Amino acid sequence: MNILGINAYHPNASAAIVQNGQLVAAVEEERFNRVKYAAGFPAQAIRHCLAEAGLEIQNIEYIVVPRNPWARLWKKLKFAMRLPRFAADRAKVMARFAGVHYQLAESLGVAPERVRAQFHRIEHHQAHLASAFFVSPFDQAALLSVDGLGDFASAMWGVGQGAGMTVKGDVAFPDSLGIYYTAITQYLGFWKFGDEYKVMGLGSYGQPSFLDQFRRIVRPAPGVNFRLGLEFFRHHIDGAELTWNSSDKSPVIGRLYSDALEQLLGPARKAEESIEDRHQNIAASQQAVLEEVLFAMLNELHRRTGMKNLCLAGGVAFNCVANGKIFRQTPFERVWVQPAAGDAGLAIGAAFHLYHQILGRRRQFMMDHAYWGPGYLEAHLREAIRQTGLPEKGFRIRQFDQQGLVEETATQLAAGGIVGWFQGRMEWGPRALGNRSILADPRRADMKDILNRRIKHREPFRPFAPSILEEAVSEYFDAPGLSPFMQMAFPVKPEKRNEIPAPTHVDGTGRLQTVSRDANPRFWALLREFGRQTGVPVLLNTSFNESEPIVCSPQEAIDCFLRTQMDALVLGDYLIDRPPELPESLRD
Q1: Quick one: CA torsion of 40, 43, 44, 46, rounded to 10 degrees?
Q2: How far apart are the first and last CA of the chain?
Q3: Edge-first strand listing for the sheet containing 164-172
Q4: Tell me, what CATH number does 305's domain have?
Q5: Does residue 355 lie within any of the structural domains?
Q6: Closest CA to 486 of 452, 463, 506, 457
Q7: In terms of DSSP H, where are the helices of 306-363?
Q8: What is the pTM of this model?
Q9: How far is residue 134's CA from residue 147's CA, in Å, rounded to a whole number?
Q10: In this structure, are 114 and 142 located in the same domain?
Q11: Is 123 in the same domain as 148?
Q12: pLDDT band at 587, cuts 50/70/90?
């Protein structure tokens, strides 16, 4: 049985194929069109997934999308009567999804009659819950999805048991924790879609001195619920305006906060203005009150379900600061957040929801790694090196077996080198987890500044992440569990903070990735070798990119290596060093 899941006409457009209950491929459209958070129709992602599964479109028996226009129809109609433009927008969305068969056929260059699959719609948040539970290691768990808005709801909760889920409740428009966080992100001068994680990092530099004001903006409510102070927002008046550029498919979201927010907190920061203590304190207060509301929901969820396991999904599940505190602030003992917890993950959620919840098939898959994207053969790597002309330009290129490769790479990292690391199939989700990573020595306190100056060009308040051998976690972190997908921030033990200062955030935490030998044997071997050489089984790990989506192909990796100031590039078994005669201006 072949199921194609598609997240389309929405940011983080993506596709996934589930074959006989097993995930075969999952990838975001941005990996191919090189537009961050790309919306629209994921034609290239679909083509890749079909190729990875060895299928043609006529072999697909089910196509499923995470959008149900009939969900909460009465609430939508009531809102549409107040805002005719909203009704027109909904009509456009329904028309797009009604034509998915034709769009799919056109994008694949086949006749529409070759798209023979049954077509199913899954409600947005049910797909989120399915994306977390049905691929988790738990046989039973409490489930919570929290994001901005989908099918006129912003949150949903329930229980997963075996091969089924039971939805127990939801939070409907206009209350939304995702919109709350995005509105404050805009107020602080960060207007690009997806900038919320920047404000999460900024908050660690401030003090939560605006708690009284923020408790007017959002507050817990009875049940697994919360309420917004709607006077501080605009989305309930003129709609949550989310569009995308027709040319590059980049998402654009309109202003979400009202003038009343500025009356409460003071003037909004303009994007070009410097960041002051007040802005840091607002960011800290925003995060603190988000946590108050989220933990109130989770404690009530635990009271109602009695479950020890928790599965989280939705964009708010990317808040690694809050995730790391769940173990201390709630009775939950194990927490699962899959690597593409946001809207990209809807593609796999819709597919697994169909397979288990609708078709009634038993579970037989667990997501124990994140490497579901494109991979390349050694011949592809060799051809990319040849086409770029690196040997003729003086770059030293050596090929190693695995042991030689990790020994030489670890030696360069220990000497202060910055290395691009390109291996195997690329990561599913926004985190670089050791297959499309830039790696550096965590022991150097100045490494964060060096990376920003030479490669990343990021705001100084944004942290880099530590990757650590799974076996060494308890030595370095106060972590009650593992974090293989870099979705939780835990305190670095005080006695270890001077040992790994580069990826330790100003608040003493690290958004760690725990690396197991089974999930990624080569990256695990590199961490072990670096630990053998230095005594520290940790590497600073950041995404392999420069103001773009993570590199996907070997050619993109080489291009990024050439236009930045990385010291070396590891491409599969090949290690590429810069020519020694590079001008001093290109060296730190």
Answers
A1: 120
A2: 54
A3: 164-172, 153-161, 140-150, 309-313, 334-337
A4: 3.30.420.40
A5: no
A6: 463
A7: 320-329, 346-352
A8: 0.94
A9: 19
A10: no
A11: no
A12: very low
